[in-house]
Write a structure and sequence with these properties.
2 copies of one chain form a homodimer. Chain A is α/β, with parallel strands linked by helices and about 375 residues long. Chain A contains 11 helices and 17 strands. The first copy, chain A, folds into 2 domains: about 10 and about 245-370, Lyase, Ornithine Decarboxylase, Chain A, domain 1; about 20-235, Alpha-Beta Barrel (TIM Barrel). In chain A, helix 5 (about 115-125) packs parallel to helix 6. The longest helix of chain A is centred in the middle third of the chain and has 24 residues, at about 175-200. Chains A and B meet through strand 10 and helix 10 of A and strand 10 and helix 10 of B.
Chain lengths: ~375, ~375
């Protein structure tokens, strides 16, 4: 640790740590895939919510991005991003904020899947992608829904039809590269079928946008697709490791915590990271291996086999041996620093106002603010 | 709605609403109970995290409070609170911040349950309560643990022994006043037994502190107890309603959301409040009635029977009929405003930076900031 670094023992726990080397490796990995697949990567920054990270994705060009809130759009536009997709179905009442950003030179596009939204965006002069339902998990129209053409014509009549987009969120519950490849093809098929239906009706469909972190990594061929979206690939997390999109060694985020006590008879180690720090996300509960509220690592970030945060209160976590593990429970005196790998990076990062940037076993080499809200 | 108020349709959804009348009714209810029981109420402000609310609890006296983080202690001390209990086992590395507050005139007390912590607080000159384990759910010593006396002597030797405290967190999984009364007695018994053990060893134990929202409302007799702690009683939530501590009509917090689409064939109404707004807390999942991610109300806050947020993504919620409900699904056009009652007020409120204060069907009559972090 060089003299400019802050030791981890100077941080108030719980604290959010971000391993920059791992993050950059994750970023480079998907950049390379997008290039190989011949599509534009449009990173989804709902996970990162940081302009320090937005300037590191996509080759550091302040290029096209995806956001989940207008607050993100405003922050990232102020940081220099000009091409932004707001990928949550537009509430008509939010259009004045969209118009304000567009007036400031931000090419902000919205998404929609129904006629009232299409009428509102045409009236507001805001371009839109039509959301396509590829896997039944959320919103969007089926590619063969007659309403697709009706909405396409409405948008095109107002000069506001940009294309189509889909997201196979169901891919998060599929394990293994083969299944992710299958879901990537489900996304691609739905998107290009919808684009084809619009084109057959005499409409243009320049943008064909697909993606999720599992399908982005699993896709074999994206012919007909123009752009790829993914968010959690930047950090990865236990849910992604649980479906084999990455390994535990790829996880760039962790929560630093302090041992504050023991309930020895129960095999409990008490820590000061509860659900307020880890979030209530229990995404691995439905996976092959339930990781509780997170996997325990030592202060340097090395995974401690079979040790998880078994339960959590608001500001208390309880470390236990994984069910079935032989033990014994390691001895961690009061004051010991540990790192916890989170189930879901989007949810855990949202509990903090900044990233403490580290590299491997370094101290804190930088502090990057995060924003939140809507 | 008078001219000074902002209509709910002017808010960016999702937005956090706080019904001030309901909150004040909840506050008054527990104030009256504490008075009847002859104990001091020390509200736990980990739920509220607002100095506007801290001045409304406990008779508006800026009286004794409980906190879950040192950030809360600092904020509430700056707002005029002098008597603060930090009720998470102290990490020795945090003592300099405690000392700094004490130097500024804040009578900040910490809690602990082991010898290394006791040694550290004596060295730092910080007074402490010893945490007692009344129901096996978290930290603390059994009242008959010999270590209690050892720690008591250590603290008393340094002039830092203030007393004992316990919290029957297991009461949250018990339904009905009878059971809460039983757990209140479990808390009282453990705390007064521990106090008695300390006194029998020649030590003083001026403070005997107990409480949780269910036990505070269920307690029949608190003889020997000096103070009562509770937090979520200020707002209440679906988890508290599910164990009959309150009714749905008492819930002071809700999340305002907008309908953004429909998947009619599936019986889904899509809204712009996902888990980022509601939190991932699914506390009612283990109760008699699983409320999903929340109970749906109309814009005015009237509960819509059998309608819940059945699932959630980061910024999307899916409203469905409750399993088994006959239907039909109500018709809510795109743009309709709804309110969602949360499972867990502490977790949902933490997702927002401010409360939009309303009264019944009023518009927004005030905006109160919240803080967070550690």
């Amino acid at each position: 640790m060089n003299a400019d670094q802050t030791g981890l023992d100077k941080l108030t726990t719980p604290a959010l740590l971000l391993d920059q080397q791992k993050m950059m490796r994750n970023i480079t990995r998907l950049d390379a895939r997008a290039q190989a697949l011949g599509v534009t990567l449009r990173p989804h920054l709902k996970t990162a919510k940081s302009t320090e990270i937005s300037k590191r994705v996509g080759g550091g060009t302040r290029g096209p991005i995806t956001v989940s809130t207008l607050a993100e759009a405003e922050e990232f536009h102020a940081a220099g991003h000009k091409d932004i997709l707001y990928a949550v179905g537009i509430a008509p009442r939010k259009l004045p904020r969209v118009q304000a950003l567009r007036t400031q030179g931000c090419d902000l596009t919205v998404i929609l899947d129904n006629v009232p939204q299409a009428q509102a965006v045409v009236e507001a002069g805001v371009p839109a992608l039509i959301e396509i339902n590829s896997d039944g998990h959320r919103g969007g129209l089926q590619p063969d829904d007659p309403e697709l053409i009706e909405i396409g014509q409405l948008l095109a009549g107002g000069g506001m039809l940009r294309g189509v987009m889909t997201h196979a969120g169901a891919s998060y519950s599929q394990r293994g590269d083969e299944k992710h490849a299958t879901y990537a093809e489900v996304e691609r098929r739905a998107a290009i079928d919808a684009a084809q239906a619009l084109r057959a009706a005499g409409l243009t469909c320049p943008i064909v946008s697909v993606g999720s972190t599992p399908t982005a990594h699993g896709a074999r061929d994206l012919s007909g697709v123009t752009e790829l979206r993914a968010g959690v690939y930047v950090f990865f997390d236990l849910v992604m490791a649980g479906i084999d999109v990455c390994t535990l060694d790829d996880l760039a985020l962790s929560v630093l915590t302090t041992v504050i006590g023991h309930q020895t008879a129960k095999g409990w180690i008490m820590i000061d990271a509860g659900w307020m720090a880890m979030s209530r996300d229990r995404g691995t509960a439905v996976q092959d291996v339930d990781q509780g509220y997170g996997v325990v690592c030592d202060e340097q970030g090395r995974v401690i086999s079979d040790l998880i945060v078994g339960s959590a209160n608001q500001e208390h976590g309880v470390i236990t041996l994984r069910p079935g593990a032989a033990g014994p429970l390691p001895v961690f005196p009061v004051g010991t620093l540990l790192r916890i790998l989170p189930n879901h990076a989007c949810a855990t990062a949202a509990q903090f106002d900044h990233y403490n940037v580290v590299e491997g076993e370094s101290g804190v080499i930088d502090v990057w603010p995060r924003f939140r809200g809507w």
